[in-house]
Hints:
The structure holds 2 protein chains of 2 kinds.
Chain A: E1 5-7, E2 10-13, E3 19-24, E4 31-38, E5 42-50, E6 53-57, E7 64-68, E8 74-78, E9 87-94, E10 104-105, E11 109-113
Parallel strand pairs in A: 2-11
Antiparallel strand pairs in A: 1-3, 3-8, 4-5, 4-9, 5-6, 7-8, 9-10, 9-11
Chain B: E1 4-6, E2 11-14, E3 19-25, E4 32-38, E5 45-50, E6 54-58, E7 61-66, E8 71-76, E9 85-92, E10 103-105, E11 109-114
Amino acid sequence: KAGVTQTPRYLIKTRGQQVTLSCSPISGHRSVSWYQQTPGQGLQFLFEYFSETQRNKGNFPGRFSGRQFSNSRSEMNVSTLELGDSALYLCASSLSGSYQETQYFGPGTRLLVL
Amino acid sequence: QKEVEQNSGPLSVPEGAIASLNCTYSDRGSQSFFWYRQYSGKSPELIMFIYSNGDKEDGRFTAQLNKASQYVSLLIRDSQPSDSATYLCAVISSGYGGSQGNLIFGKGTKLSVKP
């Protein structure tokens, strides 16, 4: 079974631009969560999607948004990029997002904002 | 603010020794506890999960959970240089705050196993 895939793997943008990242979950998984990882803050939860609906949201500004498609693939968008948005963005999938399930992480997209 | 605390390390142990990694969490309603390993430049990979008080063993790894003390630990027996990585403790919290069903991570403990 193929794992979680994320595209692109690396991205360089400048301040003020916007960016869209993509995540394809493991086949059959309907819950997709997004995380931001930085050296200073560690791994922080952005949001979770299930059945095309945002079910949970972390403490990030409205510049961070996402969506999920009917095939469970998910995208996240960051508008008006800031230098502090430079990070590794990880998505993780699970069957339904239940607290007893394991989330499987993708390889991540490394974003550098100049 | 729900928090997960870990000693950042680095924790250095000789090859063959037992490495002990510790984690405390603030939310008493937390229900599920996970240990992830992350090699430099890679994404986290699950090592173990534990839901109930007590010990859970899987090969060289043992997870220990004490909900009364809000404490979870990971023991690695017969440590190998290939175990050198950052170990992340993660907790699924309960209820309010929009965080139900999603992981709150500690900042990780860097483990170095010396040959």
